[in-house]
Specification:
Rossmann fold; alpha/beta; 289 residues; 3-stranded antiparallel β-sheet; single chain; 5-stranded parallel β-sheet
Length: 289
């Protein structure tokens, strides 16, 4: 197991919301109620973390991208750190509507950043007025803040990992519409019906979010490492085949040359024998001619 009961308990993953705010769909993951607050069953949380981690590991191993989403204050820093460590895209600022369903437009905005950077380096920036410079600089800063973390996301992600699925309901809805699997930390006040891989846990505490992200990030890193090893093995096998190919080709070529020489020698011998055995023309015929 990537996490255990004690780690989750110490991080406060078991604290749910007030009983009056609960979502009945979360009943299977609630252990008990204490002082009007629901307590999450951490044994089920540990199992769900393991399931999600394995699935994410396989996605990373196949070379696909996982987009991390968490715009609430408690999640922003943790998500940014973990996503950067494993080289995955993330959104910690406002979720721009249509980020998935209107992905080509988002890519244009990202390319706009690149074009502004090019203007700054090729001298174009020096030939415009101060006012235009200020406007372009502000535009660049805004784009960097909202989309800088997904600059390397050249196509739709293969999965979403969401902290607080209720707050990020637009992101979840877009992923559902496109058939992108959603992994989510789901608290007792949230609806788990649209989440493919549910992790029932406290989504309001930084420590709770961190302990879950640690387990998930470690699994993704494992997948990336296994992918590197497999790639290295494939390259080594290909190089070995290239080295063996000339060695295998040499005997075959030698054999072909030998067959050609043998055939040529045989034809010459047959011609020689045939010419030797042919009857000489009579002398009278020679005179008549």
């Amino acid at each position: 197991m990537r996490t255990n009961f004690d780690q989750l308990l110490e991080a406060g993953c078991h604290f749910g919301h007030l009983k009056r705010k609960w979502n009945p769909a979360m009943a299977p993951y609630i252990f008990a109620e204490r002082n009007g607050i629901h307590i999450i069953d951490l044994n089920k949380t540990a199992v769900k973390i393991e399931e999600a981690a394995e699935a994410l590991k396989n996605i990373a191993k196949s070379g696909r991208k996982i987009l991390f989403v968490g715009t609430k204050k408690q999640a922003q820093e943790v998500i940014a750190i973990k996503a950067q460590e494993i080289g995955m895209p993330y959104i910690t600022e406002r979720w721009a509507g249509g980020m998935l369903t209107n992905f080509p437009t988002i890519r244009k905005a990202v390319k706009k950043m690149s074009s502004i950077d090019k203007m700054m380096t090729d001298g174009t920036f020096d030939n415009i007025s101060k006012r235009e410079k200020l406007q372009i600089t502000r535009q660049r800063e805004k784009l960097e803040k909202n989309l800088g973390s997904i600059a390397d996301l050249t196509r739709l992600p293969s999965a979403l990992f969401v902290v607080d699925v209720m707050k990020e309901h637009i992101a979840v809805a877009e992923a559902n519409r496109l058939g992108i699997p959603v992994f989510g930390i789901v608290d007792t006040n949230s609806d788990p019906s649209n989440i493919d891989f549910i992790i029932p846990a406290n989504d309001d505490a930084t420590k709770s979010i961190e302990v879950i992200l640690n387990a998930v990030a470690a699994a993704i890193q494992e997948g990336l490492e296994e992918r590197k090893v497999e790639k290295a093995d494939e390259e080594a096998a290909a190089a070995q085949q290239e080295e063996e190919a000339p060695a295998k080709a040499a005997p075959a070529a030698k054999e072909r040359r030998a067959r050609v020489r043998k055939a040529t020698t045989t034809e010459a011998t047959v011609e020689k024998v045939a010419s030797a055995e042919a009857p000489a023309a009579p002398a009278e015929e020679a005179k008549a001619e």
